[in-house]
Each structure stands twice: as structure tokens, then as C-alpha cells.
Specification:
The chain is α+β, with helices and mostly antiparallel strands and 198 residues long. It has six helices and four strands. It is extended and about 80 Å long.
Length: 198
């Protein structure tokens, strides 16, 4: 019986060591955070890709937030090809993807992929002559939280917490629609909360 117990103990130890190795290995490679498919940033990037301002490989969706942030940085480098409305949209999306943009190494922003024109990526003026600098360092201070206000990247949220390891964002979405069905007028109000851990 003791031989049997030794064999079982050996197998249990083997299984425990193997499971610890697998668990630790999976912790070494963090999960990619994808952008939901119903976000307007997809239409924005697709529109500018069709115009030839950027090259977008979006055949397989959803795209990662990191990839979208890289495309926003690339658009910043090509800001002279954007209309005033597209520049406003770029500024808006840059606030939403501020965390990812701030984590793109400056050396990578200076490569040909991001900086074909060798322009200053931090304060390049738009067509109106005003500088917008969404790439400037808006990195969050450790443990910075905001309730019903602007987060560390100037995006208004219901709740936001950001530190060097992760971020939590809670944003409300309100909606209203009006329609008729069988002669009856229908008013539909809706509210949803978007919860995102990055």
C-alpha cells in the first residue's frame, strides 16, 4: 500500500508542478484588449484608409486597442491630409485611446511606420495653426481616480481609475428613439453602462 501511495503522491506532485508552470506561463503573456465592433473608431479609420491617408488591415475584427492607437499616432503624423472635422475626431479618439497611445515608445513613434515626414510628433500644428498635442505625456499618476469627471487623458467618464498596471473605465450611454407601430407613437429611452478593464 505504501508503494501505491508513493506513486499517487508522485503523480499529484507532477500534476501540481505542471499546472503551476502552465498558470505562470499564461501570466507572462497578458491578454489583448479588443475594441468592441460597434465603436465609431472603425468607421473613422476605414474612411481615412479609403482615402489613402493610412493603411488599415481590418479584415479580421475586432482590432486590438493597441493597433488602433498605433493608427491614431500614424494619423497624427499625416495630420496635414486631414480636414478640420477629421482633426477634431482624431483628438476625440486620442482621448479615448490615451492610455494605449502613452504606452507607445517614443522611439517607435519616430520610425518610418509612424513618422514618414520626420515631423515633431508632440506639437505638430493642424491646418488652423493651432497645435494639438494628444501625444504629449498624459500618463496617469499611480492610482489616479476620477468620479463623474475627466480621466487622466481628458476623456469624461462616470468613473475612471488608472495606474501603471491597469485601468478601469465606466461610461454611460444614453439613447432615445421615436417611431410608430400600428398607428401608435412609441418613445423609447435607453441607458447602458460600458465597463472596460484595460
Amino acid at each position: 500500500m505504501s508503494m501505491w501511495c508513493k506513486m499517487i503522491n508522485k503523480k499529484i506532485k507532477y500534476i501540481l508542478v505542471l499546472s503551476l508552470l502552465i498558470t505562470n506561463y499564461s501570466l507572462l503573456f497578458p491578454q489583448t484588449v479588443n475594441q468592441p465592433l460597434n465603436n465609431d473608431v472603425y468607421q473613422y479609420l476605414a474612411r481615412l484608409s479609403q482615402r489613402g491617408v493610412i493603411e488599415l488591415n481590418d479584415e479580421i475584427r475586432p482590432l486590438s486597442r493597441k493597433y488602433i492607437a498605433e493608427k491614431l499616432v500614424q494619423l497624427k503624423m499625416e495630420s496635414d491630409k486631414l480636414t478640420p472635422l477629421e482633426l477634431e475626431e482624431l483628438e476625440f479618439y486620442a482621448k479615448d485611446f490615451g492610455r494605449e497611445i502613452s504606452r507607445i515608445p517614443q522611439s517607435r513613434q519616430d520610425t518610418k511606420e509612424f513618422n514618414k515626414k520626420k515631423t515633431d510628433s508632440l506639437s505638430h500644428p493642424d491646418k488652423s495653426g493651432q497645435a494639438f498635442s494628444f501625444l504629449s505625456s498624459h500618463s496617469a499618476k499611480s492610482g489616479q481616480a476620477a468620479i463623474a469627471g475627466a480621466d487622466s487623458y481628458r476623456r469624461y467618464r462616470l468613473f475612471s481609475y488608472d495606474d501603471s498596471l491597469f485601468a478601469i473605465n465606466l461610461s454611460p450611454i444614453f439613447g432615445y428613439s421615436y417611431g410608430t407601430n400600428d398607428g401608435e407613437n412609441k418613445h423609447i429611452f435607453g441607458m447602458d453602462l460600458v465597463f472596460m478593464v484595460i
